[in-house]
Amino acid sequence: MLRHDWSREEIRQIHDLPLPALLYRAQTAHRAFHDPDAVQGCALLSIKTGNCPEDCAYCPQSAHYKTDVEGETLLSVEQTLDRARQAKVGGATRFCMGAAWRDAPLGAEFDRVIEMVRGVRALGLEACCTLGMLSQDQADRLAEAGLTAYNHNLDTSPEFYGEIITTRTYQERLDTLDRVRRSGVTVCCGGIIGMGEGVEDRLGLLHQLARQNPHPESVPINSLVRVPGTPLAEAPAVSALDFARVIATARILMPSSIVRLSAGRLELSEEGQALCFLAGANSVFLGERLLTTPNPNEDEDGQLLAKLGMRLCSEPLTAAPSP
Ligand code: SAM
Ligand code: DTB
Ligand code: SF4
User: Fold this and answer.
1) I need a surface site. Which of 49, 75, 162, 302 has the fewest CB within 10 A?
2) In sequence order, what are the residues at sequence separation of 6 or more whose Cβ sits closer than 8 angstroms to the Cβ of residue 309?
3) pTM, entire model
4) Non-local CB neighbours of 234 within 8 Å, separated by 6+ positions
């Protein structure tokens, strides 16, 4: 039932289906693997903010651009676990720690991250980290500490990637993803729409994700949060219809994965978010901040889910790596 040999042409045909047919297929795929009324709540925390040496054109934390983000050194284990406890009270079952590093450091800082992972797991939450590139040894140490998932996005197609990031290659991203896979930690990998890419680049990203075997267990689909000072500050907004098409295609290609309606929800109406859930998204970030940018607050999300007759998952979702 799960396929890893999708062709670009097949993906295009799915993506370009009339919307009713696309949503029907996405719903069918969704219901074969997931409870369609439940979404997983995840919380994000920036454990190390800003001053990143990479030049990702979308990112407010890059040292190459002048944004309002104030750099901060690595948080303490206690600060982090306080936030994880709050996230759990707010209904999250997964806690994701993000660091503005090109690659994860060695030594005391990495040891501290390992302690954070252990502490988050001890709270009964799934733990996810996104720390940049990893060595095999680092991936193995994170696995041993009980890390549930490692987030490392491919962001866009291989062809468009060079327009967005020049300081590292697509192949380096794929290499880190391989190391994560080998360590036994599940893979969280997705991308961003709204960076000026064409539909062909969205298909190219989805192709790269769907050809992985196993599929990434978690697929975050972000729409660009346009931050003043970054090169993409004035990029045109993404419509909810385009967002939902990409989500539905991801859902059909990778039916057993958790597809996350990630950054960009503040620019969607309630109806736009509902469309994304109908397209097969089954997770959102909770809390009024993503890493450095705003996100709907707890009240808004509570009201939205109540209006839709949907609910947050009460238990962690990710058990084992996907087949
Ligand atoms: N530095 C690490 C890395 O790049 O892998 C981890 C942190 S980085 C901020 C995590 C992901 O956030 C990026 O891969 C990108 O997909 C997403 N992201 C960053 N800025 C964004 C923005 N303005 N809008 C949407 N997504 C964004
Ligand atoms: C992902 O794909 N989206 C999250 C998470 N993985 C780490 C990050 C979104 C960041 C949005 C910009 C910001 O808040 O700085
Ligand atoms: Fe650095 Fe990650 Fe932002 Fe790129 S996306 S500038 S690597 S923090």
Assistant:
1) 162
2) 37
3) 0.94
4) 226
